[in-house]
Please model this.
Amino acid sequence: MNKKFKNGIGVIAGCFDIIHPGYIDMFKEAKNNCRYFIVLLQSDPTIDRPEKNKPVLSVDDRIKILESIKYIDDIIIYSTENELYKLLKEINPEIRFLGDDYKNKKINGEDLNIPIHYLNRNHGWSSTKFKELISNNLKKSYYIIKRMNCGTGNLNTNVMDSNIMGVTTNKKIAKSYENVFCGYEKVKIINNEKIE
Model:
């Protein structure tokens, strides 16, 4: 089925460090509004904007992820805001995509008069939120359900102990096994090591 596009080349610029569902929605919306969609990928925004967050993933890793997304036709790497300006001038796209949180803000390349399409950001996702969710999940307490000597109440403190019968973050579930296996232990675990 042939699809008529209002615009030819469209671009979006950014670091795209942690790809979350909100990015996929934005890429889809962008592709639906241009024939050829280019992601301008910044290697590290802290190079000339130290207030920004340093990427967690390498450029190669981010490229690998972006290349797997069907809405993206091409990826071009840049390092500084000056390089971005030169790319925008050279590519001269028919449309540039920005998140709607950029409305009424000064942007790099606004003097080039490239038409702007503001992408819907009401999905509620952000890379910062995604990282915080992962971090908070790692801080959860885990209840390790163990077989133990009911007479002494001793627990083997080795997290990888063969006496472990299960692991849960729910204290009620852990307590429900207390009568069966005689006990559980509350710990925090990172990389299979008990840290609390």
User: Anything to note?
Assistant: The radius of gyration is 25 Å.
